Amino acid sequence: MLRAERRVSRKELADGVGVHPQTVGYLERGEYSPSLALALRIARFFDLPVEAVFSLDPLPAIGSELTRRTP
Amino acid sequence: MTTSPDQTFLARTFEDGRYAWTRTHRVRVRAVLAEAALLGALAVATLVQALTDDGWTTAYFLAWSAGMLLFIPLHSLLNLGIRGVFDRGRHSLDEHQEGLREHSHSSVGWPMTALTFAAWAGGIALASGTGHTVLALCLGFLLWFASGLLPYWHLAWTLPDEEDDALSA
């Protein structure tokens, strides 16, 4: 999970994007799809393009992706 | 759309970690059942009282008052379990909480309308047709009261358990 890999607490992320911490939980468990505005704020929080954070398909963990790309 | 939920005193109370035990599905369902049972008991007591020859006794109204007083802590428990999303200002809710509130309202829209109609139409018909004004007032009030509680009950019943925050920090 991106948040865990960045060592960001749920509360820090929630405060950073202007939602309640439990909403972050619902997002992470796939029980809630965010609005476009919230998705963009989350992407900006992690300094990543939105398509790197949200996808219709399961995303690989960033750590494993970096390991795969390292020669 | 809310981008920064304000933490009012009421919102802080509903978000207080000391009440995390109320936010489990089991507690919420029990609170719903307890509220429904309480309203049912008051309705039964009203009907029983109407059928007796004693009329509307002081004991009946004391029981009614006790029931309404018991409702206060029960509904506080239920409200803590759903983080008070129906009673807080919109500015203190984020988009997910607003969505939950609107979904529950729309899901019970027809039953709410039917109960409210039954309360008013039934009460007026009962009072004007049979002269049982107190019975009509009490039953009408209970039906109208239940209609207002339906969104709370729907959300409390359908909201999944929240993940333990200690695991997610």
From TrEMBL, chain A:
Keyword terms of this UniProt record: DNA-binding
InterPro entries (alphabetical): Cro/C1-type_HTH (IPR001387), Lambda_DNA-bd_dom_sf (IPR010982)
Domain of life the protein comes from: Bacteria
GO MF annotations in UniProt: DNA binding
Protein name: DNA-binding transcriptional regulator, XRE-family HTH domain
Coiled-coil features, chain-numbered ranges: none
UniProt signal peptide: none
Originating species: Geodermatophilus amargosae
